[in-house]
Amino acid sequence: MKNIFIEYPRCSTCKKAKDWLNKNEIEYEDRDITKDMPTTEELIKWIKESKLDIKKWFNTSGLKYKELNLKEKLEKMSFEEKVKLLASDGMLIKRPLFISEKVILVGFKEEKWEELKK
Fold first, then answer.
1. What backbone torsions phi and psi does residue 18 show, to the nearest 5 degrees?
2. Which domains does the chain have, with CATH numbers?
3. Would you state the pLDDT for residue 115?
């Protein structure tokens, strides 16, 4: 499996993550989340493999999240409903995402991404 880097190209955090990957010579396939959104199947697989609560996959600082008042609504939604919502709009997904056989990273925290160098 190839490493996959999913980003929104105009996102400054995504740019920092991409620069970090390039500086550390980590190979990846680049995906623009607005043109090639993760599928429901991919999201289910990755969320389960990441062992993170699904709430961590939502871009809580995004306009769309706030417009839809998801802070209140997510509490009442099932896992399946949350995944379908994430798959419906890439702007709801926290970015960047890095998917590899070893690790799945959501958002960019350099200390967590250091795992990729091992």
1. -65, -40
2. 4-117 (3.40.30.10)
3. 84
